[in-house]
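User: quick one
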Amino acid sequence: MNNQEHSTSGIEIGVNRRSADREEIVEILMNEYGRSVTQLAFTYVKDWALAEDVTQEVFVTCYRKIKTFKGHSSIKTWLYRVTVNRSKDLLGKAKATGRLVESIQHNSSQQNALSTEEEFLKLDEDRQLTSFVLSLPIKYREILILFYYEGFAVKEISRLMKMNEKTVKTRLHRGRLLLKEKYEGGEQ
Amino acid sequence: MEEKLKDLKKSMDRTVFQGDVFTEGNKHKIRERLKRERQRPSFRLAEWFARSFKPVASVAVCLLLLVVGTLYAVSEGGRSRGGDANSAADMAESSALDTGATTDKATLKADVVQDQTASIEKKALDTARDDGIVIHNAILKKIDREFNTDLPFKQREKYIKDSERASTKVKSYENGVSISDKGIMTSRVVAKDGKEVDTALLPFQERPLIRALIGEVAGRGVLIMKENFIAAGGTELSLSKIAVAKEKAGGLSKQILRQYQEKLMNAAVGKIQRILEAQRYTGKYSPTLEKYLDETINMLRQVKKEGNLKENYQSYLEGLKRLYLVNQVLSRSEHVKFSIQFGSQTTIQQPDQGKKKLTGEIRTSFDKLPGGIQEYIKSQPFLLEHYSEDPGFRERLKLADQMISDFNSNDVDVLVQDSVKVIGPQYQRKDHKIIIMSGKRYKKVYEHVYQNGINDTEQKILNGLDEIGNDFYLKQDGSVVHPKKLGDIGHAKAWSTGATAEDLKEVSDAIVAHADDKLKVINPILPLTEDYSLLNGLFSNAKSYYRSVLDRGSITTGLQYSGYYSMARELFIFDDVLNQPVPVKFMTEETLSNRERVERLAQ
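Assistant: Done. Structure below.
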């Protein structure tokens, strides 16, 4: 038996096990990270039904691939990586099939063509901030979410996104600038 | 900006991430996906072919073609080579397309299977409609009538009022307590000549328990869907699903059946045990239900290791269907009209069967009833059936027509009950009445304690009773509630309604801790009760119950909570009756003739 034990956030998992064990692991992960995974997926797809689809895919992938998890990163990072990939896959597919409404992908400068969610969210400060963040281009949005919402460090993000630390910092900086511009534009 | 972003988490949690974004429903869907994953063979030749062998083979063929092409080109004096490159590219593309085609075929196959399933389901539903509903309909109607109707309560309330008004003779006792000639006792005493009461009708306490038991035993089934063995539970289980399984069972091979025989047997045995448990409570007021469950047990007993496996499986499915149907009936809080929707899809149309039954004298007497009453009875198949079969009902209606000036459909509802026992054992405190299960027990204890005076031992027992009976856990926030009225206890039924897992765990933990506290009170009191058989029984029951809670260590299901609720209610009533300095009324049961019933109604 080639069981490797990994501990992260209080979760200990043994990998490379029987399907029943894998189900158990997925159950634990669902309980621990199900919410976060759905939320993260939502920040990409901006649609709860799609986020739910992504979450399902993430845990099914997790079930299939848990054997390949080497433990070089934390299970959370691994799970988030899968979430990001699946979300992007789905976004790609949705874009190709036109499933996502265009307004979700809109550019923030198009203030007169607000998405439904923006209209809903702009009501107060919280909503405004959320709305602005969600309307950023995906490459800045994901970094800001991972950094400010999920609380990952730059190094962790670079590992998770498989990109250079400097790129992460640059995107973080540009993301902030874009957000600032939105605020300034909104306050005018 | 940095400051604002630091609040991003709070902002998003307050706005888009409000509420439970990952629910039990989501988890369930994932579990279902995983179950399907598990059932897929670990090595899939077609997939392996598509993913591994095919691309490699394509490349090899391309290379071969390239070599052949090159040789050909060389031999032909170096003519065009572009075609080969193109063909290689075409091959690669073709390979990629083939991979896609495999997926498409799989999708197509899934669609076809789905279509077939839909067709089987439709056929099965038709079968279910004929075979399932119609056969059981008459029996289920009867069970419903015996089990679900609340009419006796209305009847009792009315009678109590009437009796209070009509009471003329009141016998007073030394301690100031009195009892009327109608059996209504006031204050803390029971007449020596008072009738012993026992309930035969709809005890509050046991009805939810039977519902829970039958719900539990019916709510999960194991079905073999061709090569898949699935455990359908809760809302997933439906009449149509069972019917589809039954339909498909014909096509199952012996090998598959043998593979799952053990699981089927275990499922059947588990169900039998739970049905037997439920049956302990059913006989008293729903003999038809008892008989129905008995027949179901016989069907489930046919699930054996030996014999015709297909027949065994069919027996199991038939048993499951019966449980499902009766659960539908029992779980309805209101009186069932049998044109209701059963399960998720099947609508039962009630045939106008009663009309045909009304022949001869019965028909003549029916035609003499007022038009409105006739219409009302005809609109309710079970009333029509009752009219046809029950001479007592016919007589009461005839009398009612003569004696009640504004005879209407409400009166029909009251008069339809078979039972002539118009008052169940109850006690009344202030403005609320509590129907109690074993009125005889309460009365005896009450009589013993208050007619002979309370000695020191009895006072200690009563104090102990007060400690264990006056508080228990009801609310789902885990706090102790001191119920003041029956309505408070009623909240306990809301165990699974809207409660989060955390709430339930909190209550469960509190109950377990509470059980420990109660045992600390019960243990020293129990020896004192040896000379008082009923109190001894009460304390012994309470001890074994709380012991079992401690042993189990948690309350995890509505059924377990129902047990807790029953125990708490019993203790609460005893405590309330014996310890609270408020006059208590006991009301006894009385048998009335048809004429007396109509007279009371007419009054």
